[in-house]
Design goal:
This protein is mainly α. A hairpin with a 2-residue loop joins β1 and β2.
Length: 101
Amino acid sequence: MKIIAGKKVKTIAKKENTVNISAPFSPDKYAALIVYANKRGEKVEDYVADSLEAWYRKKVNRHIREYLDAKYELEFGAPPGPLNIPATEPEESANVPFPES
C-alpha cells in the first residue's frame, strides 16, 4: 500500500503495460534523488510513477479513468491499482458528456 493524495491505495499492478518516459533533468539532482531514495530503501522510479499516477487521477476525466479501469479488468481479470481515489474533475472536462458507443 502507498499513500497517494492522502489516501492509502494499492500500487500499480505488475501486469499493467508500462511506457518509459524520458525528460531532461540535472544529473546532479538525479544523483541526489538516488541517494535519498536508497537511504529509504526505495527507487526514484517509484516516486516518478507515483507522481504520474496522482497527476493522471487529478487531470484525466473520471469517465475516461473508469473506461480504462474496466478495459484493464477485462484484459487481466483485476482492475489496476490505485482505485477509488477521489479526484477533482479537470476544469475543462467537468461538463463534458461521456461519449456514447
